[in-house]
Amino acid sequence: MTVSPEGAVHVDASWELFPHDADVGVRGLAPTIEGAFEQAALALKAIVTDAEVLPAIAVEVQCHAPDIELLFVDWLNAIIYEMAVRRMVFGRTKVGISRNSLSGTLWGEAIDRERHAPACEPKGATYTALKVGMSPSWRLIDPIRRANSDTCSNDRSVTSSKSAWTLKRFSNSGSKLASR
Fold first, then answer.
1. The domain that contains 156 carries what CATH number?
2. Total domain count, the chain
3. pTM of the predicted protein model
4. Rounded Cα gap, residues 145 and 161, in angstroms
5. What is the pLDDT of residues 70-127, one digit of tens each?
6. CA 78 to CA 62: how far, in whole Å?
7. Are 161 and 21 in contact (CB under 8 A)?
8. Is residue 175 part of a domain?
């Protein structure tokens, strides 16, 4: 976040992971709601791997929901579904939101166990503690449950901050992407 000489606040796009009762929290921060959704997707990728992900394959995703909170949950579940079914990891996204619909593109590549060294597998987004709001920018917060969370070696957490856009949790039902 930067502050201009006139006192205007500009929030840079970023993502964070933080400890949470569900397992790990995901936070997306950006000047726009679309950017916050994109940042949350990058945080989701960080749960799986720290490795670079090549944008080799593009996957189109459509989501529809009655409100922005549920749209966020659907977006993350769509990414998790595509990761599991295609056995891929995505390192870049582009989101467009109009009313209660999202059109997104995920760019990524097939999981390479040696190169990506997947640490954990996100299982699914749920509605527990779901909350959407706006602070100086769009901000999404998301507690996440990973597969085999007791044995995950992925320690990529940061502390939470004061305000947030969205809050939800991942559950342990789902696929076999990269469990250890």
1. 3.55.10.10
2. 1
3. 0.74
4. 20
5. 999 899 999 999 999 999 999 999 999 998 999 999 999 999 999 999 988 888 776 7
6. 8
7. no
8. no
